[in-house]
Structure formats: structure tokens, C-alpha cells
Fold these 3 entries.
Entry 1:
Amino acid sequence: MLGREQMSIERKSWWKKNHIKSRDYFKRVILAVRLKGQDRLYLKAFRDIPLENLTQLLPIGKLQIGNFDQQLIRFTFLLGTSTAITHLLTTMANYPIPGLVVGGSSLTLLLGLWSLRNFYRSKINYLSSMSRILFYKNVASNKQLLAMITDRAQDELSKEV
């Protein structure tokens, strides 16, 4: 990794602000990967990679559910379970509460669909970011990268001489 620098800070509207951990990025990143059970070494070079996206370059990246989405799923499950238990208890006590099942189940369905949409959106954002990095910021692969490195080394050697 060469050339760790700072990105220029953009002014955004208050409703479009993203919480970015770091604005540092690397001018050039060379990645050497050997997959399990293979003898071949894969080389790739990238340019202008943000610091928080370095893990996306590795082939073992995983998509994880965010903390807010986890809490939303837990709350949805808790709401659905409490609605079912409350309905069961009120029917056993012969004290019907009108609209309990309709309100609780519709709210549970609404929150469930919202959490599913949030997870789907985060998955699409992650995959689009990954494809953008792999397609637009890829400089060279195996043979081209070795040729670029040897050419650069020969240029530096000729400058010294």
C-alpha cells in the first residue's frame, strides 16, 4: 500500500450526511492472494482505495446485518410473539380485545417488511460498491502487473545510471 492520503471533504446537505469513519485512502494497493487448496498466486493492483474498503478487496468478504437491522428484527419478533400471546390470553379469559390481532399482526408485518427492505438495500449498496471498486479502480492483474512493475523498476534503474 503506497501513498496514504486524505480525501477532500465535500459539503453535503444535513439530510444526506453519511457517517464515514475515515476519509483516508491509498493511492495504490497491490494485493497478492493465494486461495485455499491452490498453488496459484493472484496479483491485482488497485488505485484510490478508501481505508474502510480495504477488506472488500479480499475474497473472504462477508455481508453482515447492521446493528439497527438486528434490533429491528428482534423488536419485530418480540412484537409478533407478544401479540400472539396476548390474543391467546384474552381468548382464554373470555375478554376479547377488538383489533388486537389485526393491529399487532399488521404492525409486525410492517416492521418485518421494513427490516427486509433495509437488509436488501444494504446488500445492494455493498455489492454495487464492490463492483465499482473491482471494475473502475482495478489497474492491472497478474501478467500486466508484473510487466508494469518491471518497467517501473527499469525506469528507476535507468534514472540512477
Entry 2:
Amino acid sequence: MAQLSDVAKRAGVSTASVSRVLNHPDKVSARIREKVTLAMEELGYVRDGAARALASRRSYSIGSVVPTIGIGIFASGVERLQQRLQEYGYQLLIATTQYDASKEMEAVRSLIERGVDGVQLVGQQHDPRIYALLQGRGIPYVNSYQYDPDNEHPCIGFDNYRSAWELMRHLMELGHRDVGIITSPTRLNDRIAARLNGMLACLKSYGIDQPANRIVEVPHRLADGRSAARALMRANPQITAICGTADALAIGALFELRAMGIAVPGEVSVAGYDDLEIVRHLDPTLTTVHVPVEEIGVRVADYLLGCIEGRAMPMKTELEANLVLRDSTARVRTAPVRTAAG
């Protein structure tokens, strides 16, 4: 097995330079990094993770506990987080919870047992025992995807409530007053709950008390967005806009409206939330709220690594989730009267 000294000899550099390339590549010139990387490839060098961890008392791994990677936003965020960590020689361990509080507790315990040096959590709503476990062992952690200036725990995220309020205001400014809302479950999901509350508060500011039959809660799946849109239109044929708390639901609504022969945005406007890549390629393209998922991944990595290295890091970081106007929303137009049958 090739040793560190063998790599240094092959690359024509000191063992200290090889160590810096492995542990702090940003502090080494591109020329040295290239020489050392080539030497490692030629020798088939793989560093001894156990010895490294023993010497440094670190595992050089970060844990990320997310509800699911079946949703594009979390998948993209995890990917960017991993890319950033790899730049500093860290690996990412991922655990999914399916929005189950007991599974989240199990996931955090498992990551701690594996010796992770830091943990990313999603949202602000967590079992207090999770915080006690992390704090008791001195493991840095950060909440993400939801900004809350009043929460006692560190966070990197955005204001789901305010951005959803702005999304609904866009529909109001276009003249829509009969609006249907499709939401994924709010239980154990403070981000979706904040988005729904923001939409309802905006409607209230325009003098609209949203009727219960104009809010449909369904699983976070495109097919359920379709069924919810059909249910809304059958119960409320006067609806002129549908707003989803997530893009997947809005995409489903858009597809179902087309299947029902209802023009978008000619008869019904549709808006979502997330800005998944696919929504830019739909016909019509989808008006939505852009979630800064890649920036979250980078900021989370930098925060946790900074804490691990003993640097003072900001407790709260607020990012912007901006409204993106596209072709799926338009001003209210005079349209043929639809029946409840659709």
C-alpha cells in the first residue's frame, strides 16, 4: 500500500504539502494540487480514514437529516452540500425521515453513533431531545430551509411565510379573487404550514376569508395535484386561479386543467412554489417562488465547517426566496361559465 511519503516523493513535494492538499486544498496552489493528485492516482493511494480520525479526533463526515430525497429541492440541496464538503475533504452521510418525528430521532442517534462532526436539520420543528443530544456531545448543527429570527437555534433559510404571501399578492394584483389552494400536509412540516398561512393571510388582507372547500390537502405528488385540481374545479367552478404550496402540486393542477379543457392562463392561472428545473420547460412555464437551494447547501457546509474549526459563525442567516413570473399566470379574463361537472 502506498504511503503519504510515497506520494510526496512521486510528486516531488514535501509530505506537509501532500497533507495540505488532502486536508486544506484551498490553501495550496493549483500546480501543487495537480501534481499531488496525479501522484495519488498513479500510486493508487487511499488515505487511512481510521488513522486520520484517530489522529485528529474527527470523522471528517457531516450528517444531513432531510424529510426525503424524492423531492427535487432536497435532492439538489443535498448534492450541492456534498460538493462543498468534498472541497474540504469531508464526506456526507444522508438520512431521510419521511416527515416522521420518531424516524428523525433515530436518524440523529445513528449519525451520532457514526461519529459525524456536524449535522444539518431541515426546518425548525424538532424533538427537543434531538437538540439535547447534539448539544450534550458538542456537535455543531444548523436548521435549514426555514428562517426564524426568534428561534434559539442556528438557522440558514428563508421566510416561507413572506414569500408565499408575495406569491398570493401577485394573483390578487392580477384581479383574481376566487382562488383555490392545493397544499401538501402541514403536520410536522413547518415550511409548508408557513406557506399556507402566508397565502391565507394575504387573502385576508384583501378581505377574503378563504372557504374550507377551496383548500385541498393532499400528499406531495404530481398525481395528487391533479386530483386536487379536479376536486377544486368541480366544487368551485368560478375559480380563476390555483396556487400550490409546492411545484409538484401546481404541475399536477396544470396537467389536469388541460385534460379538463380549461385553458391556462386564459381561464385559470396556476402558480407554485420551489422553482424546480422542470417548471421552466412546461407549456406554459410556471410562475413560482425560487428556493435558493444551492446557496443553502453551500452556506450549511461553510457554517458547520466553521464551527468545527472553532471560528465564530453567525447564528442566523436569511436568504431570499424570490417570486419568478412566468407564463402560467395572467389577468382575469371574461371566460365561458363553467359548470360543476367541469
Entry 3:
Amino acid sequence: MYDFHGDQTASGDASSAPPLALTALELPRVLGEYTASRLLDVALKPMPGRAVGEGRPVLVLPGFAADDRLTGRLRGHLRSRGFRVHGWQLGSNIGLTDRLVDGLTDRFLAVADQYEQPVSIVGWSFGGLLARRLAHEYPDRVARIVCLGSPWRADGERTRATAMFERSRVKHGISERALDIITRLREPVPVPVTAVYSRTDGIVPWRGCRVEERPEPLAENVEVLSSHVGLVSNPLVLRIVVDRLTRDASVRTVA
């Protein structure tokens, strides 16, 4: 993420980042993962009337430099499984600018106001950090969060995208609240959280994506074999996301 303290150069030695060989394999791997998930969706099309998600609301947040188009495979899969799925509708995720910080809050509240139950949030990469922030700000309105390859820990800050964060900060600016937001979201999340990570992630260090596991509220880690970009299209990941979003047996009603 951002180099708030200036103790590391954006283009310097990223010893904690994934090996360059894994980074180079991201594109061919994600093409295979995307194709496999599309084929499986056709082959395993849900039976008519089988409402797996039972109309539960889900907000999907893209990763850094991504937009709703890149989460389309994930959102389409969830929609076909009976969830009411919403994209973030804020264009490209350029980081913690005031426009995106406030825009995401407005978007989340607009989605939450449509339903009489809390909203689940699925955040991919940096989108998972934003999901953690929303969970801290609105714990009674967030049902649970699922973070896909989200390096929220300080020791996971050096990624293959760190230089992109720094270039974005120069080009688009950064909110004065950014450091406070990052500090807050690193605290234990007050809602159930599932952290999905891959040791073969080519963009972010997998150790920085894991959470401290606990039974209540649930905090769990799920390891998968996936590329980083493919976390929003990998068939196994899609299956895990559906499973976690339907596990919440007790649906809390918003007062």
C-alpha cells in the first residue's frame, strides 16, 4: 500500500513482495481461471427455483486500479446463485482519495437502505481493506465480509502494486484521513470475516492477508490455489464465497 512513513522507496527492494516469477504468471493463470469458471457455470447451472442466496444483499468492491468490470465474473456468479449483488459504481479504484472514501460510504448506505437486513461485503485485494473499514464504521449494517487476497497487515504492505499506489497519490492526491483509516482497519473487525489467500499470489504477500482466527465473531483463513487477479474468477474461490455468504444462519434485522 502507501509508504506513509517514507522509509521505503516505491520502486526499491520489495523483499516481502511475491517472487517476480509468480507475478509474470498472473496473466496466463487468470485466463485459465476465468475460462474454467465460465465453463463450470454453464455445466453446473443452478436448478430453477433453487435460491441458494435467498436474495441476500452483497456489495462487491474492486481492487486497486480495478473497477466493476473486473469483478463482473464474481458478481455474475453470485447473482446466478440467488444473491442481490451490487457493484460499487465509483469507476476505477484509485485509492484513498476523499471522493472515493466518501463515495463508498454513500454507496454502501444507499445499498443498505434498500434492505431490512445487513449487507455482506466481498472485497478483492485493496477492496478488502475498504470492506474492513466499512465493517468498523457500520458494524450493525454489515452482515459479514469476505476478503480476497487483501494485505491488511502492516507486514504485508510491500506488494507488487506499491509503486502504483505512490504514482496514484501523486496524480490524484490522498485524503488527509488516509493514515487514520488504515490504522483503524488494522484493528480486529467486529463482524464475521473470511480471509481468502493464496501462497502463489503474484501481487501481494500472502502472509499479510491472513487474519487472527477466532470463534466469535468468526475470523477465519481459507487458503486456495489461485493467482491474485484470478481471485474474482477462480472456480474454487467462487464456491468458497458462495458458501460463506450463505453460512450466516442468523440474519440480523436493522433497527
